[in-house]
Queue: 3 jobs
Job 1
Amino acid sequence: MGDKRRPGKAARRGVVRAEVISVGTELLLGQIVDTNAAYLAQELSRLGIHVYRRTTVGDNPTRIRQALREALRRAEVVILTGGLGPTQDDVTAQAVADALGRGLRLHGASAEHVREVVRRRGLTPLECHLKQAMIPQGARAVPNPVGTAPGFLLREGDRLVAALPGPPGEMRATAAGVFASLRRRAGAGVIHSRVLKFAGIGESWLEERLADLVASQTNPTIAFLAGPGEVHVRVTASAPSLGQANRLLAGVCREIVGRAEEHLFGEDEDTLESVVGRLLKEQNRTLAVAESCTGGLIGERITRVPGSSVYFVGGVVSYSNALKERLLGVRKSLLRRHGAVSAEVARAMAAGVVEATGSDLGVAVTGIAGPSGGTRAKPVGLTYTALAGPDGVRCEEHRLGGTRTDIQYRASQAALDMIRTELTKHRP
Ligand code: ATP
């Protein structure tokens, strides 16, 4: 194979090229989504290693062998995930060994680890369990602190091959063990990104505001990612060190934020619900929800955040007029005059949930999620979001698009962003 591995243009420029091979028939059948490859691609670019290709193969030794041999002709680093388990269809270690003309050996410390984990589960270690401790000759085992099968890392000429277990938690834990070796190999610098997250605006609005920055971008680069009810801007810098990349990012991010500050809700791992939670906690305030068209989604999203019971007192999911009257104190006359989907009723629901629960803030949503139930005057997607607090009650009207699920999610975004905006006003 050596003659076929002449360095290409990229290698001559000092770029380290990587390929990821995901092994698993369930991936090919679409029964699970390949989150491992996405994770590895992101982490490798942080190390300054460029992922040039991703391949998916089933649990088939011949195709794993072929995929690995082909990848090794093109890339300096090849990472496989999946197929390291104890069952018959877990064939990755054997296929890697065969592709490289090596045998398999039992790795003593890994075998001991496998025995221990199996015993801890109340089982007797069997031959098939120990199969997980078989790694190719010359490979280094990468300990798997959260599962049984270790990963492994080997050098093949000037190439590096790593194999990691399939379960995402185990893959991440073992990947950490190979990144140190890859960092040494990369040496060429890092590619680092920051993601700025905006709500309450559309992608085109933001693109227009940033048009000149996008037109002149070189390093860092700017990319837009639109999701339901929010827009992300990923800013990516390439630099010799993380510190230098961060400095490049800071300048561009400051400029972007300055153009749309009122709509920026967070960065990287932040979500609207986590940001709202953080602000409520900081300001020592409590929140209750009254939901009609979102069916509890706002409450569910707020309580996804660990520790939310400190600030979330609870909520009312009220679809019938009777419940709106009884639990939220919405007047019958209001419902009759304006209908359940109206600004007046949304305001009354928000004020009512504050009254009923004693919370500092109350948010309410009423709307038509569809697909049926719309009229010319009140079409599908019409929603009213109201927020009640010490300064009174505010209400917004939105005309949301998409399926029933999209409309419900967008309505929950609008409600969470309304809370965020209110709390940001009060920030010291
Ligand atoms: P096990 O010991 O569980 O058999 P393994 O290394 O053999 O581990 P697989 O059998 O290939 O891994 O996969 C186990 C499970 O891990 C899959 O059923 C799937 O839920 C998850 N998984 C595997 N590969 C991926 C992937 N690329 N992305 C996301 N999840 C994955």
Note: Residues 22-24, 26-27, 32, 34-37, 81-85, 90, 149, 165-168 surround adenosine-5'-triphosphate (CB under 6 Å).
Job 2
Amino acid sequence: MNKSDIGIYGLGVMGQNLALNCSQKGFAVSVYNRRDACELTAANDFLCKKCKGKKIFCSASISDFVDTLSMPRKIMIVVKAGAAVDEVIEQLIPYLETGDIIIDCGNSHFRDSARRLSRLESLGYYFIACGVSGGKDGALNGPSIMPGGSFRAWEESGYLLQAIAAKDSDGNPCCDWIGPGGSGHFVKMTHNGVEYALMQILAESYDFMKRLLGMNTDEINSVMREWNTGNLQSYLLEISADILLIREEDGSSLIENILDCAEQKGTGKDLSVTSMELGVPSTTFYEAVGARVVSGMVSERNRASKVFGGPGAFTGDRESELRALKDAVYCSQLVAYAQGFLLMARASEEYNWGLDLAMIAHIWKNGCIIRSSLLEEIAETLKDRRSPDILLEPPFSESINNMQAGWRNSVTIAVNHGIPVPALSSALAYFDGYRSERLPANLIQAQRDYFGFHGYERIDKPRGTFFHLSQEGEGI
Ligand code: NDP
């Protein structure tokens, strides 16, 4: 029997579509799902209908599954992140041979990936901690792929990952080697942080148009479609506009009947914790996670809405507010991307990964959820630049200088009318902190020293020399 080029363990949304993608690219694929896959409705449907006539083979046991693969075996694990990945690796190990490759395509935590890499390499196998973005359509037609871990495994399997990846406008694959350790999953986690922020920014702009400017879904849709033809063009904006057009059977907008309680699977939280540990301000990501948590307080919000009143209705000029909002969305999205690149630069330094930020921006140009015209411009700008700080680069610094008045106006008017804009306003607060030569942290240092004798540095002395308000410490 001819052996398969690739094995896929896990036939959920992503596993099924990655299997079809591999098959469409001419690879023979073996698939496996825990339990008897044919007992599972989704997997059964997949195996009976979508796989018909394709070189996709389902095995009934793990030993058969592993046995159907050509050497060195390449096995993608596409299961729920966390303990399931460890369980699957342990199930596979007894059947592996030296040089076989495991590719974890889920949203695993980068520290778990580093641990799995060490364990598998110590046993003579290779491991790729592989970030994949693009949802089900990306998995099927070409996702953005961020592989890191064992470089030897990349040499063996990179051709396959690049074949199934999205392509940029020049036909280059949106997949390249990220670096050692868990760097591939770190970069995917950062991608998801930016994704959280961009989604929140668009949700706030929808709320601004709806509740503040009193626009209906058709009117908001046409604004978003117009935005999507210019410098705000993005996948997330495109799908947001599309969503607004979906109707119920009675002709009303579906969006108004969707419960306003946003879920999260954990990468936003992981990213917030990690960026705080690394000392990087990812404020737009924190606010996006926080806004989802507030949205989850459904019954509390219901009670509070009956207790508290808010400011009066907007009576100004809608068109000028829409122009300002467009600038606010652009600048806030720019800050979200900038915070993502700063985070990766810091992680690269801390873990010695040697991340190539320009290459990562290139990988995100197509296939992934955060693809946009702004990201294409960032990718161009990062080429040949040493600094990860994109806000300082002329095309962006000039845009912010031209647009900051509109940005401030939108945040002010939203606050004055009681519309929450945590992402738009935190991006602006970050920008104002970032451009301030002097911040009030001098008072914080003095307070810390006053109650805790922590010491402060002086502006007229070299950094690293600490002083105290009182030499005695406590009791001043
Ligand atoms: P699904 O929920 O659709 O499928 C999960 C898969 O994991 C199923 O095949 C399930 O098997 C399997 N599984 C769960 N627990 C175990 C276990 N203990 N042992 C073996 N198999 C197990 O998830 P997705 O396909 O959406 O996601 C898979 C991974 O890809 C996740 O890490 C996710 O975060 C990531 N991802 C998802 C994206 C998306 O848009 N959906 C985008 C990018 C990444 P069973 O059917 O038997 O329950």
Note: The two ends are 84 Å apart (CA to CA).
Job 3
Amino acid sequence: MRQIWIMKNGLILPCEKATISVMDYGFLYGDSVYEVMKSVEGKLFAAELHLQRLRYSAEKLGLPVPWEDGKIKAELNELANQIAVPWVYLRLVLTRGTGPFFFDPEHCEAPVRLVYGTEFIPFPPELYSRGVDLMISEFRKGPSRHDSGSVKTGNYMDHVLPRYRAQEKGFHEALMLNHAGAVTECTSANIFWFSRGELFTPDLSMGILNGVTRQLVLLAAERVGIRVQEGSFALEKLGDADEVFITSTTRDILPVRSIGEFRFRPGLDTERLMKQFLETGLG
Ligand code: PDD
């Protein structure tokens, strides 16, 4: 297994030495928020957008974040430097902390701040040239229990279970529909498609995560003058798509080869967007 390093409340430890209380509400109830980030050649990728989302998620849970962005970024950089490889995977977790039994956030001790770091190994290049297969999940994405799907909490079973099911069946990811049969997102990625040169994606009111990669893709599309339609789209709409791709921090823009009966190929529109995306994210 790859070596994992942990920074707990500012202190770096090897993973085996890091501990968390069994009474931590993050462990007991999933009462925590997190971000998956990366550091590329010594530079945090899109750190501001990630920290904005972390604060948004924490606010929705009423979880205090009593640290400046500058301090959090310095810690992320310190851990990335410790790992000393060009690409570092970073996971920032904030848990409610230790508290009494039953739901009593008022009496919880201070929140715990964790950063996990390990070497970031990108998906193999052949997945990008060939495209990946998505399973249409039997799990439907319901109206979120915390107002909006864009809250990234440690309570992730709604996504973990469909992902296990997809992996068991040999799929890269599971595409989740909502109860009305509209496309929402994958278990750990947002979805986009091109149809006659126009770019389509579900909008945030569908209860999807406001992906950092999604935000950068929308910006990149604007910069190269691609028309974008965000909305509520039935699964059948994907039948008209020419090119489909999914987006996330660990994938950037990853082309899709199939969704159920529908077949696609990576194409020139996606390629053009990928080039602009890299410039937008780093610049
Ligand atoms: N997942 N949608 C969901 C449900 C996600 O969990 C993620 C990210 C995304 C893409 O978001 P971003 O572009 O900010 O990575 C969309 C992370 C990578 C994870 O938990 O593994």
Note: The chain has a mean pLDDT of 94.
